[in-house]
Amino acid sequence: MNPGLKASASGMRAQQLRIDAIANNLANVNTTGFKRSRVTFQDLLYETLQGPRLVNFQNVEAMGPVQLGRGVRVVGNARVHSQGALEPTQRMTDIAISGQGFFMVQMPDDTVAYTRDGTFTIADTGALVTQQGYAVLGLNQSPIIVPSGLVGDFSIASTGQVSVGQNGETIPVGEIGLTRFMNPSGLESLGGNLYGRTDAAGDGIVGAPLESGFGELVQGFLETSNVEIVQEMVDMIAAQRAYEVNSKAIQTAEEMIQNAINGLNR
Amino acid sequence: MSLFGMFMAARTLTALSRRGSVTQNNLANQSTQGFKFDRIIAAFDPASGAPTLSRATDMGQGALLRTDNPFDMALQGPGFFVIETPNGERLTRNGGFQVLNGKLVDDAQRPVLGENGSISIDGTDVVLHADGTIMVDGKYVDRIRIVSAPNNADLVKEGIGLFQINGPLGSVSVAETQLVQGHVEESNMNAMAGIGDMIDIQRNFALTMGALRTMDSMLETVTNQVGRP
């Protein structure tokens, strides 16, 4: 059987997965803190029909081995952690990170998850929480709690200090910490704009905003998705054309096979 | 009338079908980073009179795609990265790397080699220079090994982005090859050229089949008609 047919079929399948990833990017074009993902491909194993050899020994004219490839596969779906645009929201508990780092969030099972989505609120317990109600952790790895009875202007400094202004006084209530990873593309998506740590991402380094390598916090802003519609549309067209070309290659190879079969028919 | 012409036609058909398969694999890999497309070259073999086949990988530069991942590296110019595998050192143009357990590895988690073996990365701020020098948090760590294959015919594709080399390795200078951080090299396969090749192959195939049919009917005439009263 013609091995090219399977190669082309694998090409169609890989492009299909690429379209799926683009569709997911486009679906999240308005998701706060969303990072677009990019599908990566690898070629499959090769069948060597004839090894390399020397044709004319005097002139040392070598001929490359004749090898047939078996197609392509998808190896990964790497997230691109580039900065999204900052958008003003006028909400004092909305925080964006401009630069590197993730907010730390305490999950119900006491593990720590990471997010770039700073849509926070103050729960009735006084804790600063995410939209799902998970506590945001401070630099000291404990939740940031606004003591009850404290009413006033909630403010967050670019270096992470959280304070409440009351009667002309500024009362500090905590300090937001960030974690950064050597390889953020290696983080695992947990859904709900949260990421989990993996070995590929490396050990997280906890630090305060604006410390070396960390971004700054911007109060009253949210980071928009880094998906650019035009870029995704161009990628989608490229993927669709690649799909079509593979399909056309199957058709052409099939015509050859048909020709061979009919040619010997009497 | 001998059957020589028919054997020749059959060998041509086999050659065309191989070319078709190789082109289909090229087309399947038009989005594979670091992929280099193959050509099947048919040459006249005076000994048998039939086409003899060889393969050449086109090492032309692929376009650089910006990814913003600090461990994505692309080579601009000739040369290869060196990867350590259980079967020995292998070459690749796919610089989609990552860090696993403090070591620089490729996307199949095999170590990427520097001048002093595998590369340990312990820190957060990784900067690569065009000559392959790796600086982590401002300190020199190692230099990524970039080698060249002086003879294209020595390269054997192993798949998963790797080349095995059956010959001497060469070196490259920073003047001819630069390492570009935060980018990957796209496949150098051009889809339009590929589909053009497929149509060309198919037409040639049909033509040769036609010749085969004509020879077959001549032979039929010879065996059934000649000598009849």
Task: Give your account of this protein's structure.
The complex is a heterodimer of chains A (266) and B (229). With 266 residues, chain A is an alpha+beta fold. Chain A has helices spanning 3-27, 229-263; strands spanning 37-43, 46-50, 53-56, 61-63, 66-69, 72-79, 86-88, 95-98, 102-106, 112-115, 121-122, 128-129, 153-156, 161-166, 169-175, 178-180, 188-191, 194-196, 205-207, 216-219, 221-223. In chain A, a hairpin with a 4-residue loop joins strand 13 (153-156) and strand 14 (161-166). In chain A, the strands form eight sheets. Chain A has a six-stranded antiparallel sheet, with no helix packed on it. In chain A, strands 13-14-15 form a three-stranded antiparallel sheet, with no helix packed on it. A two-stranded antiparallel ribbon of chain A has the order 1-6. Chain B has 229 residues and is of the alpha+beta class. Chain B has helices at 4-28, 191-224, and strands spanning 38-44, 51-57, 64-66, 73-76, 80-85, 88-92, 98-100, 103-105, 113-114, 117-118, 126-128, 133-136, 139-143, 146-148, 155-159, 162-165, 170-171, 178-181, 183-185. In chain B, the strands form seven sheets. Chain B has a six-stranded antiparallel sheet, with no helix packed on it. Chain B has a three-stranded antiparallel sheet with strand order 11-12-13, with no helix packed on it. In chain B, helix 1 packs antiparallel against helix 2. The radius of gyration of chain B is 24 Å and the shape is elongated. The interface between A and B is large, with 68 and 71 residues.
